[in-house]
Amino acid sequence: MSARRALVTGVTGQDGGYLAELLLDRGYEVFGLTRSGAPDHVTPVTGELLDAGSLRAAVRETRPDELYHLAAPTFVPASWEDPTEVVEAIAVATGVLLGAAREAGSRVYVAASSEVFGDAGESPQHERSPMRPRSPYGVAKLAAHGLVGALRERFGLFAVSGITYNHESPRRPLRFLPRKVTRGAAAIALGLEEELVLGDLGAVRDWHHAADTARGAHLALQADAPRDYVFASGVGRTVGDLVDAAFAAAGVSPDGRIRVDPAFVRPPEATPLVGDPSRAERELGWRAEIPFEAMIAEMVEADLAELRDAGPSGA
DSSP letter string over 139-189? Predict the structure, then answer.
């Protein structure tokens, strides 16, 4: 029997990297949509989210059994700078890939986001919670989520929307808060920095490891029937909890080393974004397996190693 074929968009990103490794470990032939380069043992396929023709060609050429659409602009604050491009890169690209997958007979997983809930009015959120996004990014992700459901119902497409909450790892870019915190704790522990400047320490998030997210995406496409799933830890933690975990892993106290700058404080959220993963647990046997503290410790250790290798100028 020939190996199953998978096409992964966003293969050079955090989630795509973990997913590619999982698929390769399970014997898949893995193709990665990319503008340049791909992880080891992944066959690169040229394509861009804003080029519909290249997306259709990638699916047509690879004929994947499973298509994992993970690529998208991911930094929520930046979505305000050019909302139109964000909608095109997220919603329009998703529509193009769903159409191509229908023609190819592929199963499709589309990465949605907890940002679709916005001010949902209830916490934790589940798959049927109200969706009231508060950013262009969230609006675009909601449109993509809606397209998954529409094509699934209209054409019987095996399409799944994975509503993922904040998921982290040492591969997360530094512009994201958890990496900012783990890098800051590591830099302070090594004597490279004296303080870490943050915003609202009371803001609540639901964090889990990106490797768990990748495992959930794969499980969703092995199910007997397509459904949407929330992938989350189910536990809300504050930024202060994140700071405490990171500094504990770095072996230093945060006392006197954290400065709150109002410039970093986002508008308050009426509803904490905490997910209810009960459906994924019940139907897929999925849960966030890597403990929060272990995830943060892994990130701190990676930052300590990177800063040591970089020398005094690396902080």
Answer: HHHHHHHHHHHHHHHHH---EEEEEE--EE-TTS-TTSHHHHHHHHHHHHH
Q: Where in the chain is the domain with CATH 3.40.50.720?
A: 5-167+208-231
Residue 46 has phi, psi (to 5 degrees) of -70, 135
Nearest to 101 by CA among 51, 146, 143, 159: 159
CATH T-level assignment (fold) for domain 5-167+208-231: Rossmann fold (3.40.50)
Q: Render pLDDT for 156-165 as a digit per residue (tens, 0 to 9).
A: 999 999 999 9
Helix (H) or strand (E) holding 29: strand 29-34
CB 66 within 8 A of CB 109: yes
- CA distance linking residue 17 with residue 10, whole number of Å: 8
Taking the chain (315 residues) in consecutive chunks of 10 residues, what is each chunk's mean pLDDT? 92 96 98 89 94 97 98 71 86 97 98 96 97 93 98 98 98 96 98 96 97 99 99 98 99 97 81 97 99 99 96 59
Strands 204-205 and 237-238: antiparallel
User: Any idea which architecture 174-205+237-272+292-314 has in CATH?
Assistant: Alpha-Beta Complex (3.90)
Place of tokens 């609540």: 204
- Residues of the chain within CATH 3.90.25.10 domain(s) are 174-205+237-272+292-314
